[in-house]
Fold this protein.
Amino acid sequence: MMDAPARSRAISLEVNGEQIEMEVQARRLLVHFIRDDLGLTGTHVGCDTGNCGACTIHLDGEPVKSCMALAVQADGAKIRTVEGLAAEGELTPLQQAFNTHHALQCGYCTPGMLMSATALLERTPHPTEEEVRYALQGNLCRCTGYVNIVEAVIAVGGSA
Amino acid sequence: MLLREVDYARPATVEEAISLLAKYEGARPLAGGQTIVNVMKARVAAPDVLVDLADLDELRTIGFSSDGLLEIGAMVTYTQLMGSSEVEVARPILAEVASTIADVQVRNRGTVGGNVCVSDPTNHLPPLLTTLGATFTIQGGSGERTVSAEEFFIGVYVTAVGEGELLTKIGVPPSSGSGDGFAGVTIGKHGTYIVNAAATISGDGARIALGCVGATPVRATAMEERLAGSDFSEESIRSAADGLGASLDPPSDVHGSSDFRRHLAEVSAVRAVSQAAERRTGA
């Protein structure tokens, strides 16, 4: 039996290892579901046009921009947000490297940078500078602090 | 951002998707959402019903037809194209161009079907698929039909896919010794194109298509004719491109005047053809 189109949908998904069931409006952007419905405000809304990458999360293991997805599209998916990185309260090597290398200035882009770089390091544990820059192309830092961010990511690969 | 109210359905089969698209006025397919969600935010378009194709696994495959055509499902993402051994063997230019579209996050969600069905004149794939001689399979309530790129791209944001129809797959002939090239000038490294050009050189000569200079990809037919039987030396490619710009009527906007686009069209076509010539293996 085919479901008729509806204004809202009961979705079931895993967020940072926790199973969530919730009724959401079809028009709700995934980033607002994460921030406002789940209270995970580490994921930022930057430009809200799909350019800046501050809203980057992992959807089924791949970095995506959560301002360019609807919450209903995540039905059945596994999501990881920046809160899922140091789940046990201990910084990941990447988070620690961001601290050590002063890869944060205002910090607004940091959650998205961390999620994109985490995805890169999972696939390419020892990335070159070129690979790091390619992987972070969808993340803008308006403080223009790219040099330290790139150094931090490379350092994690080099120290592994 | 708060979007306008919209209805949502997630069909389990292509047939269900088509019947939903046919049944509801204002229904639009939702593929990767990398265009339509932004368009909805800007309220440039406001679909009444979104038919999410996410569960249609048969649209996510890359394979070969019985007659050797590379078949790419409409829901195949750019990331999938980049990692496909079939694409690498049959037509690696597709992966190469996909790797320059936007950024990792967009490539993980954006689909081949979405790229062509949006028919944005600045998109990468329309001119490329035009020179590759790709075919587009459209399924509707009364069956399926297959059209050429020339028939598929009708206008800005308009394709041959009608109401109650769905693009299901794109067929691309394998290269068999031909050379493919793609060049252009973007806003920022992997940004929107100001002008782009795709070229394919095979035994019969060159096929060249330009993007961003018209509503749909524009074939550089005069340049193609001048290159028939050419040795594809740099000099002959450059002289074949003479007058190409003057034959075009591209738009002017904040990124480039019409005259600048005419100039870029010649430069891009020369670069794309030169790249294609270098890559021929059957020559």
Q: What stands out?
A: Chain B has a mean pLDDT of 96. Residues 8 and 50 of chain B are 5 Å apart (CA to CA). Chain B has twelve helices and 14 strands.
